[in-house]
Amino acid sequence: AYLSKGYFKKHGFEKRFKNSFSILAGLLYPKSKGSIKINPDDIYGHPIIDPNYLSEKEDVDLLVKGIKLIKSLTSQDSNPSFSQYLNEQIFPESVEELLTYQGIIRHIEENIQTIYHPTSTCKMGSNIKDPLAVVDETLTVYNFNNLRIADASIMPKIIHSNTNFATIVIAEKCAELILIN
Do residues 166 and 173 touch, judged by C-beta distance below 8 A? Predict the structure, then answer.
């Protein structure tokens, strides 16, 4: 679960309440995998992006479990010390929406969004051992000269925390490697 200051719906762009907070269920390691493809009708235009959210039942089950956990944590009966901060439930508007398994599923399907930490699309590794590896240990793209990737996409797997600091370290290491070369 993620705790966020403010009302977090529509990627945080919907500003409805001044004093509020959000608790969100999220997946650190989703099983569902999306795709990014070149648009065959316009190779210079926007790519075709399909996040393919919720295509794996395990992801759905974990989100349902997360929402149930949030409901129990924020229940005035089970957590009176926390309830002092709860004046009203803003979202979902209907408490009944989260009373049934199907209601929770519907809520998830209608409101799922990214956490903005995409990684692992150009992973680093040995192309001999791993045919999906895109860059080597010097961050150089296989089969290209002088082309490096220095962002979170080279992470073989997403890390257990915000990716910002790790990405800065990757970029610093890439700069060092370029200067050595």
Answer: no
